[in-house]
Write a structure and sequence with these properties.
One of its GO terms (molecular function) is phosphatase activity. This is Histidine phosphatase family protein. The chain has 193 residues and is α/β, with parallel strands linked by helices. It has one domain: Phosphoglycerate mutase-like (Rossmann fold). It contains six helices and six strands, in the order βαβαβαααβαββ. Strands 3-2-4-1-6-5 form a six-stranded mixed sheet. It is globular, with a radius of gyration of 15 Å.
């Protein structure tokens, strides 16, 4: 299985920083929507692929626009939600990085599946401020869950800090049983596990 980390498209919270970090539930900008549509040409999806999105509107909008017209499996998972990097113990989740609540996810993104074995607290708290040991436990469980999907490629639509956290953790463990991670020229990072 090949795992490809993909950053969500340009969001409203990225315009007028740092004040814009106070925007709750930011959407994609027009630029972000174009970036998401462009992914269809960079990485065309098939039924052998899965796209897993963070439970934030901007990541889900990116995934939905990218998946449009494809037969790729679609999921939402809190283990790739927003995460600060590097970890700080005094950090508080910014409004722009709060996960959408489960009722909103199931109502507004009903074309995405939710994994059944994720505890409710992870949907609410997310991984943003989780201590490193807890994050690593969830990361291992998440990668194992991805393997069970039995897909050729798994694309993770996530956030800068989350991607950096996963890459740092996986590189420490030499890919956690896979080949080394390498940057992708189209803006992602790839790992074969």
């Amino acid at each position: 299985m090949e795992v490809v980390f993909v950053h969500h498209g340009h969001g409203e919270h990225m315009v007028g920083m740092p004040d814009s970090y106070q925007i709750a539930d930011p959407e994609l900008t027009e630029r972000g929507k174009k970036e998401a549509v462009r992914l269809r040409h960079v990485w065309p999806l098939t039924d052998r692929d899965a796209v897993i999105a963070s439970p934030t509107r901007r990541a889900l909008q990116t995934a939905r626009l990218w998946c449009e017209g494809s037969h790729a499996a679609r999921f939402i998972h809190p283990a790739i939600g927003p995460r600060q990097f590097p970890s700080r113990y005094d950090f508080k989740t910014m409004p722009c990085d709060a996960n959408l609540e489960l009722p909103s996810l199931t109502e507004q993104f009903d074309d995405f599946l939710l994994p059944a074995d994720v505890p409710a607290f992870l949907w609410i708290q997310g991984i943003n401020t989780a201590p490193a040991l807890l994050f690593e436990t969830w990361a291992d469980q998440f990668i194992a869950w991805c393997r069970k999907l039995d897909k050729h490629r798994v694309f993770l639509v996530s956030h800068e800090g989350t991607i950096a956290s996963y890459l740092h953790y996986l590189q420490k463990g030499e890919g956690r049983g896979g080949r080394p991670i390498c940057p992708d020229p189209s803006g992602g990072a790839r790992l074969s596990v």
